[in-house]
């Protein structure tokens, strides 16, 4: 089961690192989207959220300080989920559905991140 846990960590950690890279390399587009949602200082918010994803992804991937990684991910998901994907504010049915899907996905990802706290530490196959 430890090998399966490692494979899962690799998949999830790389998912978060990919999204962190997207925040850094697509800063202009993501900042414009954040601004359209009323986020103050959208470039700072995008950069900060990218850093949180980077910390969370590296932590899950390496097994280093998983509690800190989970805290980083929850700190990312709470505001992003409720501010960026506030589907209840949207009138257009198609856009509302798209935002609801992203809202629910983020809740599921946040819930799965919290479940990492139930795994005894130190994790097997950690790098540090």
UniProtKB/TrEMBL annotation:
Identify the Pfam families for this entry.
DoxX (PF07681)
Q: Does the keyword Aminoacyl-tRNA synthetase belong to this entry?
A: no
- Tell me how this protein sits in the membrane: Multi-pass membrane protein
The keyword Transmembrane belongs to this UniProt entry's keyword annotation: yes
Q: Where are the transmembrane segments?
A: 6-25, 45-64, 70-88, 100-119
Cell location? Membrane
Q: Which domain of life is it from?
A: Bacteria
For this protein, the record's InterPro entries field holds:
DoxX (IPR032808)
Query: What's the chief localization of this chain?
Result: membrane
Alphabetically ordered keywords of this record: Membrane, Transmembrane, Transmembrane helix
Protein name, UniProt field: DoxX family membrane protein
Organism of origin is Thermanaerothrix solaris
């Amino acid at each position: 089961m430890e090998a399966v846990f490692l494979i899962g960590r690799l998949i999830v950690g790389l998912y978060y690192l990919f999204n962190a890279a997207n925040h850094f390399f697509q800063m202009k587009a993501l900042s414009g989207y954040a601004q359209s949602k009323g986020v103050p200082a959208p470039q700072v918010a995008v950069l900060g959220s990218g850093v949180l994803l980077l910390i969370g992804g590296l932590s899950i991937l390496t097994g280093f300080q998983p509690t800190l990684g989970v805290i980083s991910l929850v700190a990312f998901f709470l505001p992003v989920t409720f501010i960026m994907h506030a589907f209840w504010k949207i009138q257009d049915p198609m856009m509302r559905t798209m935002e609801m899907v992203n809202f629910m996905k983020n809740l599921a990802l946040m819930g799965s991140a919290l479940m990492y706290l139930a795994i005894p530490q130190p994790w097997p196959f950690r790098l540090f």
